[in-house]
């Protein structure tokens, strides 16, 4: 049975090795583009999943299956144009400023991420959500930040420090953005639901 299972898994194993090799080559030749496209795909999947969760409580079948593709494309653009390049620059900078791999250095990197990168990304995400809904003004953006950023930041404290500890201590630096992108799939589902909370309820 074990031999049959190994034979059955061989094509998948080969495909994964080929993908890993191709992705590694792309990271070397076009690091920012590769990370940006990866982030774009994951952000799109996250928003699609968030909408399915939001609509699951609807009593109408049409509403359950409805997808706001403009919202999903907007999320993909955030990943492509902001998160991918920003994450690349952030990790390049953080490893240059704090090159060590000790526990103290790891905790410092995680703390800086929570204080700087995380909140700034959340604010950008809120802004693009308001833009795609047609309700963006500086006042509405500031109100959104004031209302939802503290809660999102607090929720992130229960998720991102653990991701940072694993990534900075166990993952090779060139693969950290990919690891973080996969972890952000779960987080971006939550963030998309928070960012679009008012629009989902039909609030102004």
UniProtKB/TrEMBL annotation:
Keyword Disulfide bond carried by entry: no
* Subcellular locations according to the entry: Membrane
A GO cellular component annotated for this chain's UniProt record is: cytoplasm
Q: Transmembrane residues, as ranges?
A: 73-91, 111-131, 152-170, 176-195
Q: Membrane topology per the record? A: Multi-pass membrane protein
One Pfam family this sequence matches: Mpv17_PMP22
Q: Which UniProt keywords apply?
A: Membrane, Transmembrane, Transmembrane helix
Keyword field contains Iron: no
Which InterPro entries does the entry mention? Mpv17_PMP22 (IPR007248)
Location (main, coarse): membrane
Q: Which residues form a coiled coil?
A: none
Similarity field: Belongs to the peroxisomal membrane protein PXMP2/4 family.
What protein name is recorded for this chain? Peroxisomal membrane protein MPV17
Task: Give the species.
Answer: Pseudictyota dubia
């Amino acid at each position: 049975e074990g031999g049959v299972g190994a034979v059955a898994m061989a094509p998948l194993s080969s495909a994964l090795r080929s993908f890993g090799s191709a992705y590694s080559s792309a990271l070397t030749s076009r690091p920012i583009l590769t990370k940006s496209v990866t982030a774009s795909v994951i952000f799109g999947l996250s928003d699609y999943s968030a909408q399915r969760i939001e609509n699951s409580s609807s009593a109408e079948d049409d509403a359950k299956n409805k997808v706001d593709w403009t919202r999903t494309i907007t999320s993909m653009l955030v990943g492509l144009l902001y998160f991918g390049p920003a994450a690349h620059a952030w990790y390049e900078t953080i490893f240059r400023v704090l090159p060590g791999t000790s526990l103290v250095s790891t905790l410092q990197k995680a703390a800086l991420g929570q204080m700087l990168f995380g909140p700034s990304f959340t604010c950008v995400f809120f802004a693009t959500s308001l833009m795609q809904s047609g309700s963006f003004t500086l006042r509405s953006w500031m109100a959104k930040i004031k209302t939802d950023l503290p809660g999102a930041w607090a929720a992130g404290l229960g998720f991102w420090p653990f991701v940072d500890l694993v990534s900075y201590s166990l993952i090779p630096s060139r693969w950290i953005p990919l690891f973080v992108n996969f972890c952000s799939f779960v987080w971006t589902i939550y963030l998309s639901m928070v960012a679009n909370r008012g629009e989902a309820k039909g609030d102004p």
